[in-house]
UniProtKB/TrEMBL annotation, chain A:
It comes from the Bacteria. The chain crosses the membrane at residues 6-27, 64-85. It comes from Alishewanella agri BL06. The keyword Membrane applies. This is Monovalent cation/proton antiporter subunit MnhG/PhaG. The keyword Membrane applies. Keywords: Membrane, Transmembrane, Transmembrane helix. InterPro entries: PhaG_MnhG_YufB. The lineage of its organism: Bacteria, Pseudomonadati, Pseudomonadota, Gammaproteobacteria, Alteromonadales. Pfam families: PhaG_MnhG_YufB. GO terms for molecular function: sodium:proton antiporter activity.
From TrEMBL, chain B:
This is Multisubunit sodium/proton antiporter subunit MrpE. One of its GO terms (cellular component) is membrane. InterPro entries: Cation_antiport_E (IPR002758). The lineage of its organism: Bacteria, Pseudomonadati, Pseudomonadota, Gammaproteobacteria, Alteromonadales. It comes from Alishewanella agri BL06. Pfam families: MNHE. One of its GO terms (molecular function) is monoatomic cation transmembrane transporter activity.
UniProtKB/TrEMBL annotation, chain C:
Keywords: Cell membrane, Membrane, Transmembrane, Transmembrane helix, Transport. Pfam families: MrpF_PhaF (PF04066). The chain crosses the membrane at residues 45-74. The lineage of its organism: Bacteria, Pseudomonadati, Pseudomonadota, Gammaproteobacteria, Alteromonadales. GO terms for molecular function: sodium:proton antiporter activity. This is Multiple resistance and pH regulation protein F.
Amino acid sequence: MTIMLMISWLLLALGLMFFLAGSIGLLRFPDSFSRLHAVTKADTLGLGLLVLGLSLQSSWREGLLMALIWLIVMASGAVSCQLLARFSDEQPSESATQQED
Amino acid sequence: MTITLWLFLRRSLWFGLVAAACWAVLTANSGWGFFTLLLPLLLLWQWHYPLPMPALRWRYLPACLLLFGRQLLLGGFDVAVRALGWRPLDSSNFCHYQSQLTSPASRLLLASLISLLPGTCTISLQPDGMLRLHVLDQTANWQQEIAALEWQLARLFGQSGSGEQP
Amino acid sequence: MSVVALILLFSMLLGIWRVLKGPALLDRLLTIQLFGSTGVAILLVLSKVFALPALLDVALLLAILAAAAPAALVQRLRQQKQRSRQRTSL
């Protein structure tokens, strides 16, 4: 049982690291579209690891519900990333930091 | 008639199982009396207005999910490493990728999944299947990673014959 | 476990700096997404801390709302832009 708990805490710590990395990326990356990468990917993965870690400490039903929540967040992240990117791509005057090839 | 009935029954079984799982999860395993009342109504509705589901070849789903899961992990790791400054970020740019998928549903799915692959993010999807992307590292072979996922999706959606596995 | 929630809160608050600084509208909109996913994570952890399973339902609701928010916002901003363009062309 203690091994399960240890794995769970390891996953929680990893998830936290990804969340922090996502926020740091949002602050540090030089242009808007790179920041989009940071938020979408790091947070999705962080939440996944967190859910995995938490579900090791809870019942199967809570685990399933958390997995469902993760799926919703992942889907919404992927879709709204695209929406925001397309929207900001349409207005070149306001997004001054973007570079065109 | 018998074939339609058989198909409907097989579909109902899956529908019922998924509905029961959702009910168990969302209601904290209670109120099954309501569920037994609700399920026939839902099935009746299904009989008259079947949900438009793309014909998937389910046996290919695990391989697809496995690839996607691995890429999701790599993608998160890659972006985290870059955020912490252990890998430089100096060759990000806009790129194009021509998708070979034919059905609109699979193209849309590919466009959404690309945002979670390492180093790529979809900006827009044109009607002819041309994807406008933002790539974190131009020097990486992101084309090959997208093509691998695309191949899996083509197989899942039953559009195989588009070539060898990349 | 509550330390986990605090660290998550901290990483969420880091996003506010980006809202204030900008510079593009996309940067500010991105924080919505950050708040959505991190908020869900905080609620999941808190439901463990306080042993309140109801918070999982709150998290589910927040996840659904966070999915709808960027779509609604982009739609609204687009309409605004179209309207202002019509006004200038008149």
